[in-house]
Design brief:
Helices cover 25% and strands 26% of the residues. By secondary structure, it is of the alpha+beta class. Residues 1-7 have low confidence and may be disordered.
């Protein structure tokens, strides 16, 4: 939660677990691209996610400080300790290739559904990895309210808040509910660009017929309008393009455009006076026709603003035009981030 800002209808956190002012949002000048990662047998999904997380500036700066391990008392598996050791190795080994065994050997501890040697879904692994880091941040802390749970370093970086507003079409009564998020999944079936998909995401939905809303003021089922908007913007915005059919697993292979700079204002509950602009810093790509086959790789940006294609062992420089021509699956944007082009 931003300091001094309390969203209407939401209780403020009772505790701040990680003060947001401690975050360093920009790369240290001259931070070079990290090492490549060996493919240990169908581990491209894991490699590409790790590269995107390792090259997320505020997370990388925290991991490079080794602040977590200096106070961690966890016995056994700790996702944050492993990410910290990994980021320090990768970002201090530019030009080399490393083995991501620290994660491959504990895949079921990151997510019980994962099996070594099997191609997995990169978005599912991202969610599991970030959730595993969040659990570490909450370990040993009891009696936390929900708002306080969303003040860990994980949520201070990746977390935002959605507002779902339902308006009764009979009496105009308004009902708001709020939910935290760590990424935004967008439907691309009818969209040619991410900005169009986001417009569709916040477009009002009619609730009628068998899907009517129970209005407490009318005390009956009534037709209503529902609109979901971003209520609190994250510092790092992760957008998932829904390329895979949930039933068949088949992929939507069409090209969907995505900007290098993204202004989040049109999708907010309350439009801020100043632009809320994000800069693209990583793109995760899937090549193939189904979610459990094909190949994953990514593009990330270093501290000098240079883009690189990171394809397992291979790390090669490229330009933004190449980056924006990909069939993106996951997009990573950082708020601001315009210091170097």
């Amino acid at each position: 939660m931003e300091k001094g800002v309390i969203a209407e209808g939401m209780a403020p956190p009772e505790r701040i677990l990680f003060p947001p002012e401690k975050l360093c949002m920009d790369w240290q000048p001259g931070q070079s691209i990290g090492a490549g990662l060996y493919n240990m047998g169908n581990t491209c999904f894991l490699n590409s996610v790790l590269q995107c997380l390792t090259h997320t500036p505020p997370l990388a700066n925290y991991l490079l400080s080794r602040e977590h391990s200096q106070s961690c008392l966890q016995q056994g598996f700790c996702m944050m300790c492993r990410m910290e050791a990994h980021a320090n190795m990768v970002l201090h080994s530019s030009g080399k290739v490393l083995q991501p065994l620290a994660f491959i050997n504990v895949l079921p501890l990151i997510g019980e559904q994962f099996q070594r040697g099997r191609q997995e879904d990169a978005h599912e692994f991202l969610r599991s990895a970030v959730d595993a880091m969040q659990k570490v941040c909450l370990r040993g802390i009891s009696d936390l309210d929900a708002a306080s749970e969303e003040t860990t370093i994980v949520h201070q970086i990746f977390g935002g808040q959605m507002r779902s507003r339902v308006t009764c079409l009979s009496c105009n009564a308004v009902s708001d509910s709020y939910e935290g998020f760590l990424d935004v999944p967008v439907d691309i079936k009818a969209a040619s660009s991410v900005t169009t998909a986001l417009k569709d995401f916040v477009k009002p939905e009619q609730l009628d017929g068998g899907n009517c809303f129970h209005c407490s003021r009318c005390d009956k089922l009534a037709a209503a309008s529902k609109r979901v908007t971003v209520h609190r913007a994250p510092r790092v915005l992760t957008v998932c393009l829904k390329r895979f059919d949930a039933v068949t697993g088949r992929k939507i292979c069409k090209v969907v455009g995505y900007p290098e700079r993204l202004d989040l204002r049109p999708y907010m509950s309350e439009v801020p006076a100043e632009p809320l602009v994000y800069s693209l810093y990583a793109v995760l790509v899937h090549a193939g026709s189904t979610c459990d086959s094909g190949h994953y790789f990514c593009y990330t940006k270093d501290g000098n603003g240079q883009w690189y294609k990171m394809d397992d062992e291979s790390v090669t420089p490229c330009d933004i035009n190449t980056v924006q021509r990909q069939q993106a699956y996951l997009l990573f944007y950082v708020r601001g981030g315009f210091g170097r082009a």
